[in-house]
Amino acid sequence: MRLSQGFFPTVKEVPADAVIPSHQLMIRAGLMRQLAAGIFSFLPFGYNVMKKVMQIIREEMDAIGGQEFHLPALNPIELWEETDRVKAFGDIMFHVKNRPMVLAPTHEEVITAIAKNHIKSYNQMPQIWYQIQTKFRNEPRPKSGVLRGRQFTMKDSYSMDSSWEGLDKSYDLHAEAYKKIYTRCGLSFYIVGASSGAMGGSGSQEFMVESNAGEDNLAVCEESGYAANVEIATSLVPSAERYSLSEPLKEVHTPNCKSIDEVAAFLKLPTNRCAKSLIFMNGEQPVLVLMLGNNQLNESKLQKVFGADIRPAHPEELIELTGADAGSIGPVGLNNKFHIVADNRLKDANGLVCGANKNDFHLLNLDMQRDVKIEAFYDFRTVEEGETSPDGKGKLRIVKGIEVGHIFKLGTKYSDSMKAMFLDEKGEEHPIIMGSYGIGVERIIACHIEQHHDENGIKWQKALAPYDVHLISVNMNSPEVVAKADELYKLLPQQGISVLYDDRSGVTAGFKFKDADLLGMPLQIIVGEKNLKNNLIELKDRNSGDRKTVPVENAVEEIVAFVKN
What integer pLDDT is reported at residue 197 of this predicted model? Predict the structure, then answer.
């Protein structure tokens, strides 16, 4: 493609609303333009990259037996009401105003409807069906370019099996395919344990790219290879001690002590001798959760135990239920309406401090075995930087991450609710066992740029580069320069090399070089008068910055070797 004839609207200035490198560079390099909040038009340069990502995805999905579909984005709302996901998605789902229809944020319901009508026997499975298609989600605050948009392209695939062992195999096939996809796309990534959220099912993993632009917090350990979303991450931390002597409860005045730090300082005790009480409402049922010291309650873990509808109690509810404000609440003497649960670190502990359910008073010597009826102990805490990895082999780092893919073991959640059944070898009926697997196409592009750029622009890795090489005719007024550049532009495609050719007149050499670094093709071929006089052409490796000159007669061979290796 000749730059003089193509559409390459590069921009010098950083857009005011673009705060992360990928968003800035995707606008500046002319990959896309914003149409509305969270909605982007992909221009030819950017769409070249998107096609390369989709081709890699197709090749790896086909390699595990995937069959490609193209499903409608416009869905009857009744389909989504069968699985109760209209409520689960809430305002995130786009509704059509004059029809009982929705724009699909994903396609589990459509796939299940097809399977229900056509998969009738165990011997028709396993099946892996996938598509690469537009999705719609009404994000309340679109930001970070394509990382959080309202319209985006997703590869979503679905497995159907007749056994749980079959689901495990389909799940593992996808996990391996995803590793190959992200590796081929030039990404460094983590595979992390994750919450299934509104998707439901028995388990899931996310594929995450470490980046300060990410919205997810990850706990990772290089020594052990452990990685998990902080929503579910665990660590090795000691439990609270149990002393041989358990003193009787004693009420003490703790004026104006609201926080754990204030209580501990006033009583001259370490914070890990305090039991923090938090009250939630699970429908009409009050739930008191006990945490050790300043450990932070992980609400995702709490929701896994009690369901997504559990919420913090309001201040007026605290007074009504306990007689005290937050900071003075404790587990002793509550009425039997309460469910009382605690974090694992508090199991069997004694000698603790807790609220007395009376403002400005606390109880000393709380014994978890003697004074409180705990229904169950759970891992409720949020892990912290520097804690020991669950396998004991290293320390955790807490980092920001961008999700580029998510795989789910759905089980029978959708087939149960939509009555998608099959007959086994004995003629007995069972629900189809399903998995769901998603990849964000634009997110791969953005993450690639996040990991491969410098202050001058993008550094495309070979697999995703819109063109293999960027050919620069330094001086279009020199017949010799133009002749040699034109010759290379003709010869290189014959070797299977795609070429972006800067043949613009009236543009300075410096401007061309800046555009070449901004656009970021892996190899720049610089044809200039000074080198041509010595029968040389300059080659610049965009990623390393290394430059070398090669004889004109060897140029095509050198370029082919660079691109193909």
Answer: 52
